[in-house]
Every structure is written in structure tokens, then in C-alpha cells.
From TrEMBL:
Keywords: DNA-binding, Transcription, Transcription regulation. It comes from the Bacteria. It holds the Pfam family MarR. This is MarR family transcriptional regulator. InterPro entries: HTH_MarR-typ, MarR/SlyA-like, Tscrpt_reg_MarR-type_CS, WH-like_DNA-bd_sf, WH_DNA-bd_sf. It comes from Nostocoides veronense. The keyword Metal-binding does not apply. Residues 23-155 form the HTH marR-type domain.
């Protein structure tokens, strides 16, 4: 049984028909996000990193110097600074990044990916590509439409 379809039916039956489609869309999106996160986390588990830590490693990998200020990491990943601190703390303990005091602002930190971090990022990317990104569970055409739909949602929310 599709529980979201049943919830939509119940929404309509209880007099909220004008909200039933939106509830179904939002609930479906949240359920799909949980499914994808579980798949990605399973692919990353052998490397001892979470998706949040993987995102930090990849952002550093893509940066021209392999380092960024912590505030820039938070801004680019669109997460709270405490989340960045938590991820960097764990990555640093694992020897995958180094944190140093910013040369121009002693209150700020620069995070630099280590050679071990680059190696883990590369291996983890191979795994995530093979186990999730190459086959997201929908066709390429559906994936293109989904990206367009979600881009519109994100734009309307001021995400970019």
C-alpha cells in the first residue's frame, strides 16, 4: 500500500482537499530524500564518513588550493556553522583534514584536505557513483525532469 496516496485520500476525506496535493508532494519528497540518504550513507559507511563529511571533503577537493575558510564551507554547503564544526572536528580526528588559524583573522579557521582525505574522497566517490548516482532508481529523462522541478522549487525558496 502506498501510504502517501492513502494520506492524500484521508486529507481529502477530512475536508483538506485544497492541501492534499501539496501534502502528497512534500511528504513524497521527504520520503524520497530519506531513501536516497540511506543509500548514500550505506555506500559511504565502509569509508567511515557520513554524507555531511563527504560533502566537506568534496568541496575541499574541488577548491583550487584544497583549502577553504570554515565560514565559506558553511555558506557553500548551506549548513549552520555548528554542523561544519562538527564535520571538520571528526574529519580532523580521522586525519582527513587539517585546521589552521586564518592568517588574516585569528578568530577564523582554514580547513585543508590532507593526502589521506583526498584518497578517501576519491574512493568514496567511486563507491557512491557506482552504488547510487549511476542508478538513482529513475530513468535519465525522469532524473532530468526531477532536477528541473527541484531547481524551480529551490529558486522559489531563494536557495540560489
Amino acid at each position: 500500500m502506498d501510504t502517501i496516496a492513502e494520506a492524500r485520500r484521508q486529507w481529502t476525506e477530512h475536508g483538506w482537499s485544497e492541501s492534499a496535493l501539496g501534502m502528497s508532494a512534500v511528504t513524497s519528497l521527504m520520503r524520497a530524500q530519506a531513501i536516497m540518504l540511506r543509500r548514500v550513507e550505506a555506500a559511504l559507511k565502509p569509508f567511515g564518513i557520513t554524507f555531511a563529511r563527504y560533502e566537506v571533503l568534496m568541496l575541499l577537493t574541488f577548491s583550487s588550493r584544497g583549502s577553504l575558510p570554515m565560514s565559506v564551507i558553511g555558506g557553500r554547503l548551506q549548513v549552520h556553522q555548528s554542523s561544519v564544526t562538527n564535520a571538520v572536528d571528526r574529519l580532523e580526528r580521522a586525519g582527513l583534514v587539517q585546521r589552521t588559524i586564518h592568517p588574516d583573522d585569528r578568530r577564523a579557521f582554514i580547513v585543508t584536505i590532507t593526502d589521506a582525505g583526498r584518497a578517501i574522497a576519491a574512493e568514496a566517490t567511486t563507491a557512491v557513483n557506482a552504488q547510487v548516482f549511476d542508478s538513482p532508481g529513475i530513468s535519465a529523462a525522469q532524473a532530468e525532469r526531477l532536477v528541473d522541478i527541484l531547481a524551480a522549487l529551490r529558486a522559489n525558496a531563494g536557495d540560489f
